[in-house]
Amino acid sequence: MALSEIDYLKNILTSPVYDVAVNSEFNKLTRLSESLGNDIWLKREDQQPVKSFKLRGAYNKLCRLSEEQLQKGVVAASAGNHAQGVAYSAKIKQIQATIVMPETTPDIKVEAVRNFGGEYVHVVLHGTSFDQAKDEALRLSEINGYTMVAPFDDEDVIAGQGTIARELLEQHPDLDIVFVAVGGGGLAAGICVYLKQLKPEIKIVAVESDESACLQAALAAGKPVPLEHVGIFADGVAVKIIGDETFRLCQKYIDEVITVSTDEICAAIKDIFDDTRVIAEPAGAISIAGIRKYLAENTLQGKQLGGILCGANINFHTLRYVSERCELGEGKEAVFAVKIPEKKGAFKSFCELLGGRTITEFNYRFSSNGEAHIFVGIKLRFGREEYHQLENYLADNGYGCFDLSENEMAKLHVRYMVGGRPPSLLNEHIFSFEFPESPGALMQFLNTLGENWNITLFHYRNHGAAEGLVLAGFDIPSEAREDFDKHVEQLGYKFSEQTDNPAYKFFLSDLNGVF
């Protein structure tokens, strides 16, 4: 039987999380507030000992266990903040904890768990995905009698996360809207079940990555349903299916759900840094991305809006990717493709047409005797409307162009490959692949791919996430296509065909079918 709302309130109000957690600051983001015309406040869960709110739920769970359960120990599956929260809590409680992590987990995360748990934690590396690690944790729980500490779909974990809501009301009782990131839903469920009992007029907006919107999918279906695919950038919320109990509470108390893109998340990381000098992890910045998007779509002025920086465990190498994408997310940059005549002075004439605009990127490549193709990035001072004005201006001057600002393949791969074209007509088909990132993973991917088809194009991109990203082209005769499809299906990698992507057609294909 599900815990009642009153029982949740009791659990939250009596939670002993402050044995280990701090009452984190609720800071006003002055620069962002002035920019957006509303007061934006940020709950600083990066101030927790493990740099994440996950400590609250993990510790509350352990404190609710019986003495017999504590003596037998606990087990958890995680490659991120939950693992660190359980490890730290186990050390404080002086009980044994087994943490199962995928074999592909970066060493820095494995070492962090060991450091937080010390002698009380045993790390088991198993499988290449979270699902495989979770299955192993469940197996160890069954054979050893360990108590499973779930990352989100657990009443005590939900209540532990709900202590954030208690602090929010104490720190700022006049909040109008609270924005909460959603992965598995533990944070959102804990916050909404508390706030809606004590101050039901507060609006609660759940914010999801558009690459892992499992709450939105569940609301549409009326029940938790698995997503076919989740994105890898905001790995802290990359959950395929929301929990049953978290969904029950979110469905009842969440007022609205919005999704944000990777670029919008990158822009939010920059927003937080500009005001606090703290670098949020992608999942940790989602609530601020939601605030910026919500205000762009709704006319609000002078409202009190709160977000939660739910984690700051970012891989350093991810920062170069964030830097590349943040201005696109803010609407301060546009990238586009242009076709110009291949003749003397044409390149200079085009540059002159751009006037005094700041150029952020310029990739030029001879295409044929008649034309050349350019990949251009420009800084926008007045938002997207400025790009549309430029687009019309270029068209009036005889230059055809098309916008690539929302083309993920163009931003992730093609911008680094502009100019390469096959010398003769090929039966070329383009695919994007994802594979678990680890030392030697690229070579393993190539070995798995095999040598049955000639590779005509290849670009590998590692942006500090748990997955490697590849764009690959293959020369596939029509009579061999069926065999190729069967082969890639059996590889076990996430993939999608990109042959019709306009960025590929314009810059890399031997067939120009864009305009």
Based on the model shown, name its key terms:
515 residues, four-stranded parallel beta sheet, globular, alpha/beta, six-stranded mixed beta sheet, 20 helices
Summarize the structure.
By secondary structure, this protein is α/β, with parallel strands linked by helices. It has helices at 5-13, 30-36, 54-63, 67-72, 81-93, 107-117, 130-144, 155-171, 186-198, 214-221, 244-253, 262-276, 286-297, 318-330, 346-353, 384-396, 408-412, 441-449, 481-491, 502-507, and strands spanning 26-28, 39-44, 74-77, 97-101, 121-125, 147-148, 177-181, 203-209, 256-260, 304-309, 333-341, 359-366, 371-379, 401-403, 428-436, 454-461, 467-475, 494-497.
General description of the model:
- The strands form four sheets. This protein has a six-stranded mixed β-sheet with strand order 1-2-10-7-8-9, sandwiched between helices.
- The chain is built from 20 helices and 18 strands.
- Helix content is 41%, strand content 21%.
- The protein has 515 residues and is α/β, with parallel strands linked by helices.
- 46% of the residues are buried.
- α8 crosses α9.
